[in-house]
Amino acid sequence: MSVAFRREDDDEHKEPRFELPLPPGPNLVTKRGLAAMAAQVARLEGELEAAEGDAERTTAIRRDLRYWRTRHSTAEIAPVPTDEVAFGSRVTYTLNGQRKTIELVGSDEADPAAGRIPFTAPLALAMTGLMAGETADFGGRSDAIEVIETGPIEP
Question: What SUPFAM superfamilies does the record point to (predicted)?
C-alpha cells in the first residue's frame, strides 16, 4: 500500500526539532555581549506575540527564546584584561606577514567577519597569556604569531 494512503498528515515525517546546543564551559561575555543577549530576548518576545496563531512559528520562536534566556541568565561579565591577551582583549598581531586586529569575545558574540572571534578558537588560545612583543607557535610553525599590541575592548 502506498504511503499516501496510510498516513493522515505530514507531521510524522517532519524533522525533529531539538533544543539549540549550549556551548560548553563558562558563559563569559563582554558588556556589549550582555546587552546584545538582552536585546535578542526582547526581540524574540516581541516576535512571539506577533506570531500568535501560527503554531509552527511559535514553537520555533519559543525554542530560540529558551536558548537566549538561558544564555542571558548564566552570563558572567569577564574581568577587564590588563596587559596580556585574555578574554575581552583587542589584539593587534602579525600572522604569515599580515597585520590584523581582532577581539576575543564569548561564543554568542563572535562574528569573524567583524574581527570578533570566540575566546575558545585555536587562534585565541594560541595568543592567550601573551604580551606585546611576544610570539607563539601556530599552525605547526614556531613563532608564527607575534602580538604587536593588546588592550581591553571596553575601557
Answer: FKBP-like (SSF54534)
What's the mean pLDDT in 41-48?
A: 95
The whole-number average pLDDT for the span 31-51 is 94
Q: What is the pLDDT of residue 86?
A: 96
Q: What grid cell was written down for 142?
A: 614556531
Domain assignments of the chain as residue spans, ordered by start = 25-77, 89-152
Helix residue spans in the chain (DSSP H): 3-6, 31-50, 55-74, 122-127
Q: Which residue has the higher pLDDT, 10 or 130?
A: 130
Look up residue 94 and give its three cell numbers.
Answer: 602579525
d(CA 28, CA 38): 15
Q: Which residues contact 36 (CB under 8 A, 6 or more apart)?
A: 108, 109
- DSSP code at position 10: S
- Count of beta carbons in the 10 Å neighbourhood of residue 77: 14
118-150 pLDDT, tens digit each: 999 999 999 999 999 999 999 999 999 999 999
Residue count (the chain): 155
Residue 38 grid coordinates: 538582552
The candidate with the shortest Cα–Cα distance to 85, out of 33, 133, 155, 151, is: 151
